[in-house]
Amino acid sequence: MTDDRGGVPPLSPAFLLIMLGSRLRGGVETRLAAEGIAIRHLSALGHLSRDPGLSYSELARRASVTPQSMQATLSKLEESGAVEKVTGGGRGRTAKLAVTDEGRRLLDVGKQAYADLDALLSEAMDPVALREMLPGLFRAVQAAGDRPGPERPRESTGPHRHSRTGKNDRPTT
């Protein structure tokens, strides 16, 4: 990566992390796509393997998605034989789910994909420096929130101007 003059451009940690994250995610998604799943499926399998018997609703809460979205994810996993209903839902009953042998195989594929990317990072960077960065990266992920979205509300410091008209958004007193 060079600038117009052939030199190294000014580095933004956020920009570099976004680029790296995009490339790493693409590597994992490619591996998982060969198995017919995506990261969201792998995430659901991971939650179910750690906590067997979770309901659709609980999985949706953990993944910060709607129950309808989780239903679609789990339907795909059920169709592929990666999860099965331990108890049936309906009439006010909550369906409980469990990971099957096929689901455990898919989890292993996902774990290997992440391990391969960890090895790539260790080859590209000093492994000791990489390990030392982990606590800071973890704190940064927590500070950024669980999901991307609109900026967090800030305290008002006075009237705000509308970006197109230049007029105040809020009346002043």
Automatic annotation (TrEMBL):
Region described as Disordered: 141-173
Record domain HTH marR-type: where: 10-139
UniProt-recorded name of the protein: MarR family winged helix-turn-helix transcriptional regulator
Record's compositionally biased regions (Basic and acidic residues): 148-158
Domain of life: Bacteria
Transmembrane segments: none
Organismal lineage: Bacteria, Bacillati, Actinomycetota, Actinomycetes, Mycobacteriales
InterPro entries in UniProt: HTH_MarR-typ (IPR000835), WH-like_DNA-bd_sf (IPR036388), WH_DNA-bd_sf (IPR036390)
